[in-house]
Amino acid sequence: MAASSVFRPGLFNHKVAIVTGGGTGIGKAISEELLELGCNVVISSRKVERLEAAAEEMRQKIPASSPARVTPLQCNIRNEDEVKDLVSSVLKRYGRIDFLVNNGGGQFSSPAEHMSSKGWKAVIDTNLTGTFHCCQQVYAAWMKQHGGVIVNIIADMWKGFPGMAHTGAARAAVDNLTKSLAIEWAASGVRVNSVAPGTIFSKTAMENYKDLGPSLFKMSISSAVCFLLSPGASYISGDTLRVDAGQSLYHSMWEIPNHSAWPEAPEGENQEALKELLNPKSKL
Ligand SMILES: CCCCCCCCC/C=C/C(=O)SCCNC(=O)CCNC(=O)[C@H](O)C(C)(C)COP(=O)(O)OP(=O)(O)OC[C@H]1O[C@@H](n2cnc3c(N)ncnc32)[C@H](O)[C@@H]1OP(=O)(O)O
Ligand SMILES: NC(=O)C1=CN([C@@H]2O[C@H](COP(=O)(O)OP(=O)(O)OC[C@H]3O[C@@H](n4cnc5c(N)ncnc54)[C@H](OP(=O)(O)O)[C@@H]3O)[C@@H](O)[C@H]2O)C=CC1
Q1: Most exposed of 22, 24, 162, 170 (fewest Cβ within 10 Å)?
Q2: What is the pTM (predicted TM-score) of this model?
């Protein structure tokens, strides 16, 4: 495996991680860095053939001397029973779960007015309820007794998410869930944090957004996730780390078009000033 991690080799030797959506894009990058650091990684998602191919590719890069192993396991995080089965299979195989990275998710772009109820529910079920299922099942079956670390991948929805209102709402909810679980589970030694990436290139994201693709750019978030999983972050819980090079502070994907739907100004001096302002011949 090409040594690219900034962390100490062997940092996660003999630990066990579940990475949902670990076979593509950001999840694959996270899984590869965890493997490089000696962690056993279970990559999990719906499309089993793609997962198996990704696992095989990852295996080729693990040096013979490394204790790290990768296992692909199918699971649709929307389905609570499948998540239960995933967690019990991991415990049967590896006997522990130190880390959970809730990366599996996605959405489609659509103006809110055209979203069907089915489409809305699919996105909320995937990104919010799916994340909750994974957290709850891993906690119940392992972390409640043994502690652990959870990292949720959310998105840059700090100014709303026009064009993807469903995912914005779901990710904001996960930001809040992160805080609740961090407090409820602190006494079990469980830390819960989120990472909010800016726009990151991935092949599957490109296929999903087609001609919107060129505006996306490449960045890595796996080292932020590895940091939050590491003992270096042992006093960080209930927080969300933005990994977006400041994008969320200045950038907006959405322009409000010129319009005349301004609120009525109060009578008097202010109304005159507003008329003046809206008058195209105004010198203001
Ligand atoms: C603007 C700024 C951009 C800016 C672009 C930049 C954004 C950067 C930020 C985010 C980046 C990323 O997340 S990148 C990662 C992107 N990757 C993904 O999203 C891949 C995973 N996505 C998915 O799995 C899907 O999108 C998701 C809806 C969540 C689940 O899909 P499923 O296949 O399980 O569900 P389906 O059965 O296909 O769909 C269920 C219903 O959802 C609706 N639906 C699904 N796809 C639809 C579509 N393309 N258009 C309309 N509606 C759709 C329909 O109502 C479907 O019902 P029917 O009508 O009956 O069919
Ligand atoms: N790329 C970007 O710019 C940004 C991405 N994000 C988020 O980061 C995460 C990773 O995105 P990225 O790598 O770019 O995109 P990908 O499309 O490559 O990753 C999404 C992954 O989630 C899995 N997945 C989707 N639905 C489910 C489900 N119901 N159950 C289990 N797994 C599921 C997919 O696998 P499968 O289809 O096999 O189930 C896939 O591996 C996503 O949550 C994404 O929304 C956030 C901000 C920006």
Answers
A1: 162
A2: 0.93
